Amino acid sequence: MDGDFVIGAVFSIHYHMYTEIYNYVTMPDPPKCTGSINARNLRFAYTMIFAIEEINNSTELLPDINLGYQIHDSCAAVPVAVQSAFQLSNGGDNVYYKDNNCSQSGMMAGVVAESGSTPSIAISRVIGSFDIPQVSHIATCACLSDKKQYPNFFRTVPSDAFQAVVLAKLVKHFGWTWIGAICSDSDYGNNGMASFLQATFLYWKYTYRVLRSTAKVIVSFTATGEMKVLFEELATKPSPSRQWIGSEAWITDPNLLRFTFCEGAIGYAIPKSDIPGLRDFMLDLSPTEVASSPVLTEFWEETFKCTLRKELHVCNGSEDLQKVPNDFVQSSPLRMSTLVYKAVYAIAHAIHIVVCTERNFTKNCDKQLMMESKQVLAALKKVNFTHNGYSVSFDANGDTVAVYELVNWQKDESGNIEVLTVGYYDASLPKNKEFHMNRNITWMDGKQEVPKSVCTDSCPAGTHRVLQKGKPICCYDCIPCPEGEISNTTDSLDCFLCPIEFWPNAVKDSCHPKPVEFLSINETLAIILAVFSVGGACLAILTAAVFFHHRTTPIVRANNSELSFLLLFSLTLCFLCSLTFIGAPTEWSCKLRHAAFGITFVLCISCVLGKTIVVLMAFKATLPGSNITKWFGPPQQRLTVMFFTFVQILICTVWLVVRPPFPMKNFSTYKEKIILECALGSAIGFWAVLGYIGLLAVFCFVLAVLARKLPDNFNEAKFITFSMLIFCAVWLTFIPAYVSSPGKFTVAVEIFAILASSFGLIMCLFAPKCFIILCQPEKNTKKYVMNKK
């Protein structure tokens, strides 16, 4: 058909090329096709015509532009394909379907060709010299991705490089390591098998074996015709059952489904799809259109066993393509036809890029533009569109995204073989998610179990393979993974370490997040410590309330009530600061817990030290001529407490500014779990805080010991001595316990030390006083306090 721009095509519409014996006397006739009609490829031709008519009727794609077409028959023969390529390069003639010679057609924009890799290579070498782009719907040879040799070649079918990889993954997925292989002696078969062997070597690194007696799995990279010959030969001779793995060239061919002994065959196929309106278009063949086309006439006569000529069994016009089995009007969903459809639209979009512009939301296309084929070639590299749900784009090699269906030959209720989709592979999905199975597979002989084709059984996950000395590389022992390592696939060559935050499960086939351990508020231990902490704080507050209520009584007044209240306040803070040690450590809690602990305890010890000095000064002041009380009165006591506390604040400030504590995941204490803890940041800062507290406590203890025998019925130095003894004992015991306690128990030890020393102080210093105040008020007199009978 004529057009402003022409899209050429070459399909193998006949099965054979006419063979002529040359006599070297007369000029030989041009190569021509003969034999029966390949209805499948005839469908491809009509799919192209349908797509072009759709485009010509479109207002979005190439508006006001009419595309023409030239469709040639190559009969899968290289000589005919080359002749067709030259005709397309010239503008050509010998065009089917129409009687005109297309001499008035526009320039050749692109070619859809061919139905096989070898003729596609031949065509590409011819038209590539003229920069005419070629888009193939079936040619899958990985060699055609070489842009140095085939710069004009594109395809809407995935390259065999992808198919080889996914077939290798399929073989690996089912654990077959002992397999046979068959391939066509053609570009398709040889290159496909070479890619498959390379992929299998890449995955398993073992020597390939071909058709051994123990190999139950056979991978076949062959064309449909060759598989037909092979299956016919196998059907005549009984042979052991084999699990066939087919390439996309033959695995969905309906003509092979009659070989029921191949039940269970699996392979990757082009995804099923639908082209709206195509079936009706093909069924709408008028008798006039059939009679005017030699090709359609042949097809019609072969299909209905009648003739359109005036002979016997003349076709009467009642023939219906829907009532007879044929590959032209396919009853099952389309596969390859969609690829032809995509190829035509890809070339049309490339033409659109060259000749059309858009201004003010209006598309303008210049049909008079002197377009060159190399412009279409350049535009084709940029094509990226979606039509009827089909996405089309090409990578730098002219290849499209690899999408396959995993199909399986299964018997229906009547015993006939049907092709069912059981999974898919999509290379555009994230890694390790490309392959998916959604249906059970029927294997050879109708079995449901995956057939084994190995030298030795697969090593389960959690083990790795160790080759047996002196035996084939497919023979090995299964050794469990070492501690901390896993293998999550069968037949793993090595085990690998889990990430630092993960640990193997019991069977060592997967890494699970390590449990994170810290002193959680939900734990019994944390709840008990929290109860004691809050209870201690409440006890300190209650004691302060009792003292405040009886603040005018001799016992309260005799023991420096101001320091007593400050001491109770600091004890309350000591009890409460232990709560900051409970829960998941954070940056702020790590800083707060150590600083609060250090400062509150120094405040507490400073108050005790002040009270001890008060006791000593009080009795020194009773000596004749002593005026010592004016040197250590209430102002001096406050300054003493503030000074000692300020020193600790200074230490904590330097620590927090220079190298503060921070939350840390401890991976070294336990291999199988993570300890979430506060790292000290600066160990010097931490031990400086503790050391300063210890220094004050020892100093206070020494002074209390010196004052313990001073005369007084209620000499507070005795209680201070005992409280400091408990305090020092607790913290001296804390040091080795803190260093040796693992995980969350380190925090528990620190909380226990805080609570124990706090309770020791409050019980030793205030319990006796509260007992006198509440239970023996008769003793709360100045005479009793002064030890006067």
From TrEMBL:
A GO-annotated cellular component: plasma membrane
PROSITE patterns the record matches: G_PROTEIN_RECEP_F3_3, G_PROTEIN_RECEP_F3_4
Pfam family, one: 7tm_3
CDD domains reported for this sequence: 7tmC_V2R_pheromone (cd15283)
Spans through the membrane: 525-548, 563-584, 596-619, 639-658, 684-707, 719-739, 751-774
Topology within the bilayer: Multi-pass membrane protein
Subcellular compartments: Cell membrane
GO molecular function, one term: G protein-coupled receptor activity
Domain G-protein coupled receptors family 3 profile stretches: 525-789
Source taxon at top rank: Eukaryota
Keywords linked to the UniProt accession: Cell membrane, G-protein coupled receptor, Glycoprotein, Membrane, Receptor, Signal, Transducer, Transmembrane, Transmembrane helix
Gene3D superfamilies in UniProt: 3.40.50.2300, GPCR, family 3, nine cysteines domain
InterPro entries in UniProt: ANF_lig-bd_rcpt (IPR001828), GPCR_3 (IPR000337), GPCR_3_9-Cys_dom (IPR011500), GPCR_3_9-Cys_sf (IPR038550), GPCR_3_C (IPR017978), GPCR_3_Ca_sens_rcpt-rel (IPR000068), GPCR_3_CS (IPR017979), GPCR_3_vmron_rcpt_2 (IPR004073)
Family classification: Belongs to the G-protein coupled receptor 3 family.
Name listed for the protein in its UniProt record: G-protein coupled receptors family 3 profile domain-containing protein
Lineage: Eukaryota, Metazoa, Chordata, Craniata, Vertebrata
